[in-house]
Amino acid sequence: MNKAHKITDIQLKRNIVKIYVDNNFFVETESVILSDFDLYIGKDISNEIIDNIRKKEAFRKAKNDVIRFLSYRFRSEWEVVNKLKRKKYSTNTINEIIHWLKEKELINDREFSLMWIKDRMANKPLGKLKIKKELRQKGIKENIIDNVISIFFEKEEDELEIAYQLIERKKHALKLKNIKLEPKYIISMLKNRGFSYSVINNIYDKIIND
After folding, report:
1. Which DSSP string corresponds to 154-192?
2. 200, 166 in Cβ contact below 8 A?
3. Which residues pair with 16 in a beta bridge?
4. Which 8-state DSSP code applies to residue 38?
5. How would you list the strands of the sheet with 24-30, edge to edge?
6. Domain coordinates in residue numbering, the chain
7. How far apart are the first and last CA of the chain?
8. Residues 41, 8: contact at Cβ < 8 Å?
């Protein structure tokens, strides 16, 4: 049997409303909830309506949290899901939020990956291995990673060229300090930046020959 409950008080302040059911505080939410469910003092409501109000309020809070989270920078789907999990939202609420974000084009893992690589390459050039590792840590799927990597590294020589640009940039910075860039430091730097073994070997052979 679906037990009936009674709305015993509604306190409205600006666009926020506090609703009391059976003389107990039930929920504080946006005032639009009143028209959505046709709520008023003295109305009898079922457990089903109570559950629906709770779900709607959970979605509202989750949406506000997500919008705040996305306001700092673009996020991957995995980052958003984990943020909501840490906030203790239910699986259903999280799925609804992800669906809503995709509909509004507020999350897109391919676009996120392209922006991520572009930003990293502008501020701190990296090799393919490091980029792949960072994108995996953001929960990006392998097919998306392969796709965006192919955009930034169309030819095998592209990664080699980036490595040489990084070396020249480092040489210039150290020259201002009267410090010589040692070969072993170059190789170590390239490894730490995640350049492929073929690129490192190519540069190592050139260093040895020089």
Report:
1. -SHHHHHHHHHHHHHHHHHHHHTTT----HHHHHHHHHH
2. no
3. 13, 30
4. T
5. 24-30, 16-21, 4-13, 44-46
6. 4-103, 109-209
7. 87
8. yes
Report domain 4-103's class: mainly alpha
Identify the burial level of 163 via C-beta atoms within 10 angstroms of its C-beta, where 0-12 means exposed, 13-18 middle and 19 or more buried.
Answer: buried
Each residue's pLDDT tens digit, 166-189? 888 888 877 777 777 788 888 999
Q: Which residues are CB-neighbours of 140 under 8 A, at least 6 positions away?
A: 76, 78, 109, 112, 113
Closest of 77, 136, 84 to residue 108, by C-alpha: 77
CA-wise closest residue to 49 among 71, 69, 21: 21
> For 81-102, what is each residue's pLDDT tens digit?
999 999 999 999 999 999 999 9
Find tokens 């109000």 and name the residue: 53
What would the two tokens of residue 18 be? 């506090």
pTM of the model: 0.81
**Structure tokens belonging to residue 76:** 């991957």
